[in-house]
Design goal:
With 265 residues, this protein is α/β, with parallel strands linked by helices. The protein has one domain: 3-Layer(aba) Sandwich (Rossmann fold). It is 49% helix and 14% strand. It contains 9 helices and 7 strands; from the N terminus they run E-H-E-H-E-H-E-H-E-H-E-H-H-E-H-H.
């Protein structure tokens, strides 16, 4: 972390930015001329991502290693960067859990709630206020298709992502007259390591059209954010299937549950 403020640069802060969708989002913002503030837990991962993005021509790259699920993490980030010209905040950091709630230990529950709900809310509150005072800015919150699917094993993950979706809609209304636009994205299957899928399955999923590449998802999300859209659901089929995903019959959920229970982690 160099923390060298340059007032002539428009900055974008991206959490969970070392790989997958987060890295792709950072790359897309760099291509649009933004300086990058990368945030993640792994300092090594941040160093590698920053080096890669600088080689690709990013105007500036700063980074801060921090566990966003820890108490006070959002406040620490705002103390570091709240006075910078941060025009974009992307709340992408997340962790996937597919396990029955009663099988999760308290630490795991606290981590996912702290990361998805507390950190996202606090970063929106703090940086949203800074943007509102300047009269401009964009916030992109990454939710998930799981927010619309009620199924055993996805209760904790899906509920936290549902919170992100609903909170984003309310925040959008609250900030509308301040010049700050809030967008929530709800991607479905993405070829990343988040779900623990082997690389060969990820490649096969992309070929079959079941999974989207992180780059494609990121570009759809950024396009929607800069157009001021309320919600982005990458992939035509995912948008078509939304009503079905939201109202799966009990027997279908039971079949899916029985087929996937062995994948719990």
């Amino acid at each position: 972390m160099t923390n060298d403020r340059n007032s002539s640069i428009r900055w974008a802060l991206v959490t969970g930015a070392t790989r997958g969708i987060g890295l792709a989002l950072a790359r897309g913002l760099a291509h649009r001329g933004y300086g990058l503030i990368l945030v993640a837990r792994s300092e090594e991962g941040l160093q590698q991502a920053a080096h890669q993005l600088r080689k690709e021509g990013a105007v500036a790259v700063e980074y801060t290693p921090i566990d966003l699920a820890a108490s006070g993490a959002a406040e620490r980030l705002h103390r570091l960067y709240g006075e910078w010209l941060v025009d974009v905040v992307v709340n992408n950091a997340g962790t996937f859990v597919y396990r029955d709630l009663v099988e999760c230990n308290g630490g795991r529950v606290a981590h996912i709630v702290g990361l998805h709900i507390v950190a996202t809310t606090e970063l929106c509150r703090l940086f949203g206020a800074s943007m509102a005072r300047r009269g401009k800015g964009f916030i992109l919150n990454m939710s998930s298709y799981a927010a619309w699917v009620s199924m055993g094993g996805l209760g904790l993950y899906g509920a936290t992502k549902s919170y992100v979706e609903r909170m984003s809609y309310s925040l959008r209304d609250e900030l509308r007259e301040s010049g700050v636009s809030v967008t929530v994205a709800l991607p479905a299957g993405v070829a990343t390591d988040l779900y623990g899928l082997p690389d060969v399955w990820q490649r096969r999923g992309v070929r079959l059209g079941v999974l989207m590449t992180p780059e494609r998802v990121a570009e759809r999300c950024l396009e929607g954010m800069f157009r001021g859209r309320r919600r982005v659901v990458p992939g035509l089929m995912n948008r078509v299937m939304r009503p079905i995903a939201s109202h799966l019959p009990t027997w279908v959920r039971r079949v899916l549950r029985n087929k996937t229970v062995g994948f719990q982690k």
